[in-house]
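Extended Data, panel c. Modelled sequence:
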Amino acid sequence: MLALCWFYCIPFAKFLYFASAPILIVFALFMLKRGVSLARAGLRKWALALIFISLIKICAFDVRALGDDLLCTVNEQLSEVGCNRRVFQALQVFALIFLVASSFVLFQVNRMFANVKTSTQLKPDDVQLGFWSKLALMSVCVMVVWQCAPWVGYLTVGKVPDIFMQVPWQWFAIGNLLLLLYGFWRAESCNWNYEVKHKQRMAHLNQTWTQRDTLWMCVFIYLVALALSYVAHDVLTHGGTRPMVN
């Protein structure tokens, strides 16, 4: 159990460390979108603050760690560039300049939405949320089928078809992630808080199952399929070194 945890948990924890800042930025962008849609100044300021904190982590810590670890240790082709102190110092200076420029952009964004006082009253049909939620569901189902097909082929005919190795599941995972993010981005344009004075515009909230519920169901299926795909990839390829194909 400890060996299995070391094999999977340590790389995943390292991935989470570097991915935490981009994930926080994406989360903050959704906060900003909701703050603009609902005309909440406090939510917008918190979103911009989270983005700024994430940028500090990236520019002050992640750049140094990636320069020492990724460029200098992992990638042998870039080791000479990554281990070059002048190049590494130039990378840090560029990160500092990027942080200053990003701070200026965040300040301008704050000024841009400072005068937003009224919330939007859009319905899911106004942003075609039904189409995007159904498309996300179909795409996630395709990913699940693509994940199960190699096992079916191996158990029935004794081999994994070459196409499942030539078109890896990671492509479907990235595509579905972008599609789900876009679907939720469209959903943030709608008002999901019931207001009596806007009964006609709030009719979609009277439904038992909304398009946003479909998106959340897709997220659950996607996460389960993603976890199984990660383990199945190592099994089918013997740790990613020898494909089990004929």
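Residues 239-246 have pLDDT under 50 and may be disordered. This feature is highlighted in the accompanying rendering.
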